[in-house]
Design brief:
heterodimer; A: mainly alpha; about 0% strand; B: 13 helices; about 30% strand
Chain lengths: ~220, ~350
């Protein structure tokens, strides 16, 4: 059975809207959590200015625990927690919750990796001027790493588009849901094709925005 | 101004312990340029970082302007650091800020209002000669310009102390000279006490008043630059001096002298007044001795003239002895064997 495109386009648009909503809110929440965790990882790292072995080790361990779990497995495994927090395991909000958890840890790692490449001498210079740790973080560390940070976040955004499609398959809504139910289960290649094209456009758009922003901050 | 009292610092890694600074006691006086020289790993960098407590000594006291700073609270320490400027070998400028932003940052930390910051930065840019680069980013500057920015940034809050961590080691000789002259100007015009560390003896020779030589965490020699240059006590110090004052004879010349049967040469060191007098020729004239000059030069060390000569004295042994005896009244004289040097 082929779909009636006249009535189907609004469905596609709605699903695209859902995907964008999921990615946007996940990115928003996980950036806040992930950047904080990444900063915490960085400053508590051995030899850094708020060195704390306990915090670093625990955080590092948790990140390494979550990151290797395939997202689709994680999604199912965490469903009881999702139900407890969001109230349901179906729909946009139910997709955002598990995605935020995974993305936060990924972002934390990306942030940490970008920060370690900052010349420690620059931080020493700020310290020698009498800058407090908080000032060093916000005045020096973040501005020094902002370009690569934006590119890192862009990379994460693109995986989020990918993840959102996966969340769609288990009831998260969005383009993934359409692709699976209409395209896969009903063997309608044209629907699959349309969703894939839309996903590609979204990815290109995200990368383009990321590159623009990074260039703006890198002045190159 | 700055006093180290019996300071010690040990770094521990899993595999070994490094006693970086051993029982160092030093006093840097107000208004002077004090240099610490040593090879890498001598502990000078650790010692320097104790001045603003970037490194905390394990034992011993660090006293800045009559105040023991070891146990200052974080807040007091930050206040103290704002009064001590610091510059670095690799400049450590903030790449995310313009030249203006770099120099203004310490003022921002000190809570200066925006308009005054702007005025002060302009002043500083003029002082270091970078008025046209205010809006450039560090990446577009040359090494010498970067260090000027570093210096302007360090001087922003008008500190009374400036500490320099190998400030010229990454620069070419000409730029090194420019930066050294700038440091001298800062010392003289702004009355800033400067403590610097270096492994280049020309830095010590060109701008320092006093020097300490460090080796294996200890100060092995200390004194006025002219004293150290004219009468070094340790081998390390002599090596450093020979890196800037070429007083060794060429092997070809030595070989020639040995062939001619010359066994003894004399190394003469002049300081102050005798440098300007023809002491040697005046004395040699009175005896039956010929003077053959093999090497010599005159340098200016911390404002004092310092000269040295290597000569061969040709004549009968007792005549030569009389000459050296006379010379000793005015200058330092040392016998050197042609087979040793």
């Amino acid at each position: 059975m082929k779909v009636d495109w006249n009535t189907f386009w609004p469905r596609i648009l709605e699903a695209t809207g859902e995907t964008v909503t999921i990615v946007f809110f996940t990115l928003l929440f996980s950036s806040v959590i992930g950047i904080s965790l990444g900063l915490l990882l960085y400053v508590t790292r051995k030899g850094n200015f708020l060195e704390n072995r306990f915090i670093y080790t625990v955080l590092n361990f948790v990140i390494n625990l979550i990151r290797p779990v395939p997202f689709i497995i994680f999604l199912v495994a965490i469903a009881p927690l999702t139900r407890a927090v969001v109230g349901t395991t179906i729909g946009t909000a139910a997709a955002i919750f598990p995605m935020t958890i995974v993305a936060s840890f990924s972002i934390a790692r990306v942030v940490e990796n970008n920060l370690v490449s900052i010349d420690p001498g620059i931080i020493e210079a700020a310290k020698a001027m009498g800058a407090s740790p908080i000032r060093i973080i916000f005045d020096i560390i973040i501005p020094e790493a902002i370009g690569p940070l934006i590119l890192g976040l862009t990379f994460i955004t693109i995986s989020l588009i990918d993840f959102s499609a996966m969340a769609g398959t288990v009831g998260g809504g969005g383009l993934g849901h359409i692709a699976i139910t209409y395209g896969y289960q009903r063997f309608d290649t044209s629907v699959m094709f349309v969703t894939v094209v839309i996903l590609i456009v979204l990815v290109q758009l995200a990368q383009w925005i990321g590159n623009k922003l990074a260039r703006l901050f890198l002045r190159r | 101004m700055i006093t180290f009292q019996q300071v010690n610092k040990t770094f521990r890694t899993k595999s070994r312990e490094v006693h970086a600074v051993k029982d160092v006691s030093l006093t840097i006086r107000k208004g002077e340029i004090f240099g610490i020289i040593g090879f890498s790993g001598a502990g000078k960098s650790t010692l320097l970082r104790m001045v603003n407590l970037l490194e905390k000594p394990d034992t011993g006291k660090v006293i800045i302007q009559d105040r023991v700073i070891n146990d200052l609270s974080e807040k007091e320490l930050r206040k103290l650091r704002r009064k001590i400027g610091m510059i670095f070998q690799h400049f450590h400028l903030f790449n995310s800020r313009t030249v203006f932003g770099n120099i203004a940052y310490p003022l921002k930390l000190a809570g200066w209002p925006k308009a005054e910051r702007k005025k002060r930065v302009k002043e500083l840019l003029r002082f270091v000669g970078l008025e046209d680069q205010a809006n450039d980013y560090p990446e577009s500057l040359s090494g010498g310009q970067k260090q000027r920015v570093g210096i302007a940034r360090a001087l922003a809050t008008s500190p009374e102390i400036l500490i320099c961590d190998e400030a010229t080691s990454a620069l070419d000789p000409e730029t090194t000279n420019e930066i050294l002259q700038l440091l001298k100007k800062i010392n003289e015009e702004l009355d800033v006490t400067i403590l610097l560390i270096t492994h280049e003896m020309n830095v010590i020779r060109d701008i320092c008043d006093r020097v300490a030589v460090m080796e294996n965490g200890q100060v092995i020699e200390e004194g006025a630059v002219a004293d150290i240059f004219s009468n070094p006590q340790t081998k390390t110090t002599k090596n450093f001096i020979s890196s800037v004052i070429n007083d060794s004879l060429s092997p070809v010349l030595l070989e020639e002298l040995r062939k001619n049967g010359t066994k003894k040469l004399y190394r003469l060191a002049f300081r102050g007044e005798p440098v300007k007098q023809p002491v040697l020729s005046r004395i040699a004239k009175r005896y039956d001795v010929e003077v053959n000059i093999l090497n010599g030069n005159i340098s200016d060390l911390g404002g004092e003239l310092f000269g040295h000569l290597i000569v061969e004295l040709k004549g009968k042994d007792e005549e030569v002895k009389k000459v050296t005896g006379e010379l000793e009244k005015f200058i330092q004289i040392k016998e050197v064997d042609t087979y040793e040097s």
